[in-house]
Protein: tRNA-dihydrouridine synthase
Amino acid sequence: MPIPALETPFKIGPVTVRNRLVLAPMSGVTDLPFRKLAMRYGAGLVVTEMVASRELVQNAAESWTRLKGADFRPHMVQLAGRDPHWMAQAARICEAEGADIIDINMGCPAKKVIGGYAGSALMREPDHALDIIEQVVKAVSVPVTVKMRLGWDTQSINAPALAGRAERAGAQMITVHGRTRMQFYEGRADWDAIGDVRAAISIPLIANGDVETVADAGEILRRSGADAVMIGRGCQGRPWHAGVLAGHPAPLQGEIAAIAEEHYAMMIDHYGAKTGIRHARKHLGWYLERFAPSMTADERVAVMTSNDPDFVSACLRRLLSGDRGRSATCQEAA
Structure:
């Protein structure tokens, strides 16, 4: 099969995606501010953090915050849970709130999620997993997709079989992370094993795991036969990176400080000052690790512990600007 060009569009059911670079759903990372930036800088598709289905139906504030979309399309929402009833009910809410695509999480390896027998734990119960897929497909008119791993462990690789059954149940796209649950994020993702899923389905396949560069994206497509690439951790600290892999220009060093500062302000606006400052710190840490290699330990502590947005913004401008000679300390910059 020819390898598709990364910058070309593809379709998930009737929904057109503008290129073949998809930002992975990452809990605590791909909130609305991050997704807005990723789309602005050229990602083909972005996915919400996983939304807990029962909590959404029961009006939990955090679930509604995670569901929130913006003016960009498509709006793809990932749902998590193990009860088919709650998953179907939540899917109806998502569609009513403007979701264009609903993704079912059967890949998350986190202990908190599998402890409730959701996420990748569902791969140990394929019949139950299929019941969830069928109920969600019946509940909505928008495309339903499924994200999974290769299997629970190396002795139970069942992604090809589960993906084939998911397609027959009405799923319109499958995403596979090339590791088992028990691998978490250790070792290297097995891009060739994703190809076994390609052989089992005719709907679009997205390949995920250890993609950092354009060369990686091309190689994972070649080895898996997938239609598109999903990138997750490689975008931490650079929300523009999916767009860069799709052919958009990377920001210049002098622009990175402005993006980080805007990202920080967006998070405060989205969550409110107290929560936004706390949630933003992981992102600030990633920006600094990537783009402020000569930062001192004291400077990092100052940024990561301050509750003063003006001070933090001034530090970001100084540390990420590429011109450290302008000011000796963050305090002077502020």
